[in-house]
């Protein structure tokens, strides 16, 4: 074989390798883009869930405060009807917040990527009995209730941050896809050096 034929065969091998590497790279890039879109949608769903959790905590505390104020007010007081209206608004806000939290959790159940294997933190949802107990309890118990909600919110925020932290390194599949292109580059460099 002549030198020209060897160079021709090497160039054909480089072109075939480059085309194969490009095709594999395109497939991997498309898959990576699909995964990135899915991850972005899941991150948005988790952000809505986290916002709903925070709103639920504030609504629960407002609910307790409004009903504690209503319970402390005498029925014959001129402020009783105002306290009663405030308590009913707090109840309506709490119910709407719980519906929002349900919607956010349903969206997560549909979108949750397989890469998130850890469960979302604790229930963190006060039920009617807990709210009633906080309304009837002393101020120290209400403060403990508030601190529990804050701790669960902080735990939920840490979970979301950890679950959606950016990846630390390049995927091995992408490195494998780039290997033919790197090989072709080295062959061309060797031939050009001669």
What would you say this structure looks like, in words?
With 194 residues, this protein is an all-alpha fold. It has one domain. α1 runs antiparallel to α2. It is rod-shaped, with a radius of gyration of 30 Å.
Intertermini distance: 18 Å
Q: What is the element string, with H for helices and E for strands?
A: HHHHH
Number of helices: 5
Number of strands: 0
Write the layout of secondary structure elements.
Layout: H1 3-72, H2 80-111, H3 128-136, H4 139-163, H5 172-193
Relevant terms:
194 residues; mainly alpha; 5 helices
How would you summarize what this structure contains?
The protein has 194 residues and is mainly α. It has one domain. It has 5 helices and no strands.
